[in-house]
Write a structure and sequence with these properties.
Layout lengths: L1 H4 L6 H4 L9 H29 L9 H29 L7 H26 L5 H28 L5 H21 L25 H6 L4 H9 L16 H35 L5 H13 L5 H26 L2 H14 L5 H48 L4 H6 L2 H21 L2 H20 L3 H45 L1 H7 L2 H51 L7 H42 L18 E11 L8 E9 L3 E5 L6 H9 L3 E9 L3 E4 L10 H6 L6 H10 L3 H6 L17 H15 L3 E5 L7 H12 L9 E5 L11 E6 L2 E6 L1 H7 L2 H9 L3 H9 L24 H13 L10 H16 L24 H11 L1 H29 L11 H46 L3 H6 L2 H43 L3 H46 L1 H7 L2 H50 L6 H42 L24 E9 L6 E10 L4 E6 L5 H8 L5 E8 L2 E2 L5 H5 L2 E4 L8 E2 H5 L7 H10 L3 H6 L7 E2 L8 H15 L3 E5 L7 H14 L4 E5 L11 E6 L2 E6 L1 H7 L2 H8 L4
Parallel strand pairs: 3-7, 3-8, 5-6, 6-7, 12-19, 12-20, 15-18, 18-19
Antiparallel strand pairs: 1-2, 1-4, 8-9, 10-11, 10-13, 13-14, 16-17, 20-21
Helix pairs in contact: 3-5, 3-6, 4-5, 4-7, 6-7, 9-38, 10-11, 10-12, 10-14, 12-14, 12-17, 13-14, 13-21, 13-41, 14-16, 14-40, 16-21, 16-38, 17-21, 18-20, 18-21, 18-37, 20-21, 20-35, 21-41, 33-35, 33-41, 34-35, 34-37, 34-41, 35-37, 35-41, 37-41, 38-40, 38-41, 40-41, 45-47, 49-50
Length: about 1550
Amino acid sequence: MEAFCGSRFWDPNISVHTENPDLTPCFQNTVLAWIPSIYLWTVLPFYILYLKRCKRGYIILSMLSRFKTILGVLLWCVCWADLFFSFHELLQSRTPPPVYFVTPLVVGITMVLATILIQYERLQGIRSSGVLIIFWFVSVLCALGSFRSKIIAAMAQGHIKDRFRFTTFYIYFALILIELILSCYQEKPPLFSPVNSDSNPCPELNSGFLSKLTFWWFTSMAIRGYKKPLEDKDLWSLNEADTSNVIIQQLQKEWDRQEREWKQKEVAYTKTSNHVLNHVGDDPKGVEVLIRDKRQRKEPSFLKALLRTFGPYFLIGSFYKLIQDLLSFVNPQLLSVLIDFVKNKDAPSWWGFSIAALMFFSAVLQTIILHQHFQYCFVTGMRLRTGITGMIYRKSLVITNSAKRSSTVGEIVNLMSVDAQRFMDLMTFLNMLWSAPLQICLALYFLWQTLGPSVLAGVAVMILLIPLNAAIAIKTRALQVEQMRYKDSRIKLMNEILNGIKVLKLYAWEPSFEEKVLEIRKNELRVLKKAAYLNSLSTFAWISAPFLVALTTFAVYVHVDEHNILDAEKAFVSLTLFNILRFPLNMLPQVISNLAQTSVSLKRIQQFLSHDELDPNCVETKVVTPGSAISITNGTFSWAKELKPSLKNINLMVPSGSLVAIVGHVGCGKSSLVSALLGEMEKLEGQVAVKGSVAYVPQQAWIQNATLKDNILFGQQYNEQKYQSVLEACALKTDLEVLPGGDYTEIGEKGINLSGGQRQRVSLARAVFSNADVYLLDDPLSAVDSHVAKHIFDHVIGPEGALKGKTRVLVTHGITFLPQVDQIVVLVDGKISETGSYQELLKQNGAFADFLRTYAPDEDLQEEELTMLEDEEVLLAEDTLSNHTDLADNEPVTNEVRKQFLRQLSVISSDRECPSKMSTRRRVCEKKAVEPPLQKNLNTTLIQAETAETGRVKLSVFWQYMKAVGVVTSLVICFLYICQNAAAIGANVWLSDWTNEPVINGTQQNTSMRLGVYAALGLLQGLIVLLSSFTLAMGGIGAACKLHAVLLENKFRTPQSFFDTTPTGRIINRFSKDIYVIDEVLPPTILMFLGTFFTSASTVIVIIASTPLFAVVIIPLAVVYFFVQRFYVGTSRQLKRLESISRSPIYSHFSETITGTSVIRAYGRGNSFISVNDSKVDENQKSYYLNIVSNRWLGVRIEFIGNCVVFFAALFAVLGRNNLNAGLVGLSVSYALQVTMSLNWMVRMTSDLETNIVAVERVKEYSETETEAPWIIEDKRPPGDWPTQGEVEFVDYSVRYRKGLDLVLEDLNLRVKGGEKIGIVGRTGAGKSSMTLSLFRILEAANGEIRIDGVRISEIGLHDLRSKITIIPQDPVLFSGTLRINLDPFNKYSEDEIWKALELSHLKRFVSSQPGMLEYECSEGGENLSVGQRQLVCLARALLRKTRILVLDEATAAIDLETDNLIQMTIRTQFDGCTVLTIAHRLNTIMDYTRILVLDKGTIAEFDTPSNLIASRGIFYSMAKDAGLA
């Protein structure tokens, strides 16, 4: 080297052992000059590859770019000026050493390269170059050494020796400094780059390299979030690469590729297997291999698709992790150097300063790299979730019905929420799989260096703790599963209770259900308690592990050999290393268990994605027999390949433009036939062809949660004239007047704020508007009133309707319209028994003729009698929102009146088809429209949006939680935490004191005593930890128990009006999400918060105690910390709230889609639904992404404060080294090295705590809503056999729905004698339902009173009243559980009584045919019973209770005629002596009643016997006349 430089390369006396160090000229000219060049040449090939791949359009040559290029050229000139000067010297025969030729040459070429790179980047559209910023930074750093050295030399010599090189060097230095400053600025955006149409693009894309490193670009959002609570519109859009569109396309491509490969392999396999079987004898191994191979290749691998899509991006993060792992071992080494330095009093003080600076630098570098790694991991996780969600959504639109049956809606939504979430959670720490073993090995290596073989003792303890932790984890997992089971059943039960709350109130069944919920809750809390014991054990293990390891290691170390001396360096360096070990050791088992969970999720997702898809070609759409629109030849269909066929040998031809009716008994396959035409069933054999586009109206209308108008347009172009005529034809005009916002009214989920009839008409309007070629109508007339059915048939479906000329297939129960159809198809048990026109079938005298004869004995009556069959208000089972409850929070009465108005049509019924009759009916409709329209309110949203809490959480909420935990308990917990930290500090101070003990004859004295006290203090800390975490957990569970019990009790006693205006989801949310937070999230969060808070405090105390100077720095650092913390907490809390608010629409839209797939497919709207889903996911990821970044932003800033703490602790140790001993320095710096972590977590925990404590507030809010009257008033209880007569009297009775609304019943005065049968009729809105609700005190009187047998019902308890009256409600509600519980939840009746009731309600045959008999399990909402059977169950309930008063609320809809007659008969015979009040829609059921009450606008219009009323020619007469009964 000396020959090369002409001087010594390294001289320790100049460079190290001196108070004023300097570097040799040779070192400066070689190492310092070459480092930047080596860096640039190494990075270049990779960088060029990267630039080639990412072309962003080029940037115009700007002033900035010109300056940078000119400076680059100047630098090259300066370097080569040195080179030429060396040649010049050669010519002058002064031979300079070779280094003066090599270095300028190398540096010059590097500068040319850098200059070219500046231009190449500009052409590739790079606006801020990290590679070059680092290059210029390193160049400046390396030049600083020479900069100082040259000045020192010149001053020492008094003159400048080599003037030329001296001058060029300073020019060079100035130029690279300017280059560094310029490279920090950004270029303008490139031309031809994709135009960003976003109104609010994310600044990340346009931010510079340094801004990306420190996440500076996020600062503006943090400030905005601090000033005011963030809202949706403040959020930046997602980066292009993170949007659903881009990600799902990539993932779909990879998955399709996997599926293709799999199919090819399968084909290949089948070929080879045949070939092998011929030669079985030759090579049995071959057969085995193939069989094994077959087993492995079960299905295409979703994992491979994920790896190919997201792997490369994730690996960048892994690379950062590797660097960070290596860096984390630098500081412990520096600590040992620092302790050496403090011991060595002769060392020059600049050593100390450089050690402190190095510690700071290494810590800052570690921070930056760690957060880059996290950013990559989290973004990968986020993309994974987007991709998986999108794939599942797309798949759910095309899976077969059998596949859909194998997984419920809930399970599929779970795939989307839970399983996709698991991938997201795993990504964060997936790198620990390789990083943890690496860290453990490195830590052990350095420990061995420090303490030798004694380390093995510590390692043994660690290894022993792993099975303990694993056992705890396994047990906790098991408990979690058990607890989830209880939680799910509790939520499911709550969901049903809330859906059927009205029925529970009417039957007075609340206590039984409340008990059920509390029973489940008790079990849930029992499991939670067990989990809490385990958790405090694991906390104990986690906190004590490093201590126990240190203790055993030190004990073995000092006892193995008495010459082993525990000095400060050994003790504190090994403590720091043990602390590094703690994280990987704990994370490894966790990551492995997470991995196991995720692999289960992966299997579930893969299984779902591998389900069979509907064959899009099973229905031929192009080639159809000429002249016919639909043809099926020899069709056999089943719902799944493995089920027996539901339709056999179907042969059907439907001529174009004809109207075909399909009739038959319940369950004979009418709907299945429609599904077969849609391609929804498995076609086992035969051909199906449908010509042109299809519109489909399902039996249960599928309504989206959107405005009424959107529901009808369903993505079609709007056309005013067509739209209005559709509304007219589907009889929706009147409904629009009723709805608060006309057709802009928002419809709730599942169409909850429309009556059954309205939903059906909207569904029909959607079909009519779509203007398709073929219409498949699955019983659209059953849910509407007879006269509406007539209107719809005439205006839409019939020969003169809006759809004339189109092909229509109509499934129907009603017989009225059959004479007008072109062809009737009669189905019996899945086969077509006969087809033909009405007349032909009557002549054939087959099944159809019998069917008609039974129901139409009298030709004249036939028409009317049967049209009354279906009525309007069938509310389908799942939407138990009574027809009178209108959910708009504004003016519901106008709605009410309007809504009832519609029902007025209910009795106007069709008559025989003669023109005069038609015109009267039309006139009635016209008269309707003249009613003055009530003023609309513009606020049409159905349900007020749930408010997201904003701003800081009030202290009162913390106080409420403290009260729930118990104030004394809370104080005890804090006290225990203080003790625990005191013990920990004590142990470490004792250790530091021990290390300072003088060494006599190569050994230390009283080691045993020292060790004993150290052990005692450490174990004491462990015990207090155990105690405190245990007390906290118990307090938390106590609070959870209290808060839930109060909430539940309040909800059972809340009046019905609350449930009408509050969406069930919102109440369920309190019971699921918020209670879950109080159960499981709050206690650990508080535990972590207290832990980190006290750790940070004790660190500060220790450092100040050992170096009091530190107190000066602590104040500015604390101020910065406080500001960053406030900025972050406000922003992060709001981002989390926005994220959780935007998450639920994804799932609700998804479950809505799954229930409506057949409709979506029929109309071919799949793609637009996919894009809606994508935009919802993106909306959610928008806030999630910012949330990730806010954590990174915080991390970089807080860790920087932590790094400053390390720096100042080290610096003050160096400054005060003369009066500090090594032990104290070790103590204070090793504490400082830990502080970063706890500072960071403390802010996070503060934020989490503020976010989660809101749950307490939300639960509290719903625990304090107003309650209804008491259930039982002890001193006012009526006699046990009351009411004996069943006499009902209304005295001046008025009632309104809610405060501030108009009266719905005004001054009613009437008296019903015991045993009378009263029919209640009236146009829609007359107040019929209100009367029955008043009887049960669901509505409380505004004035006046109701007496039953002389007892004022307002004075007795609600349960005493409700249990003595029976109602058969119009929507039959069942609860999941056995049939017995549904009939008799209190176990009051004997088996015989129940069987008797079932027999009378015609269910005995069905129930006794079930294997479980009375224990037959009803599914949620009674889904596994038909609507008719559910109605019969309600009848059985009434028969069981057999009270003196029976209220019948239009309880006969959606049942075929036979069942209908049975119910009427049963009521007539069984409730013979009782008072019966019937709200009638169909007058023929009440013509034989004692008296009829006609209501009009909430007052009594007429009240007399049917014959008198008809004679008096009033309102009733006109109704009866319309119905053809007068």
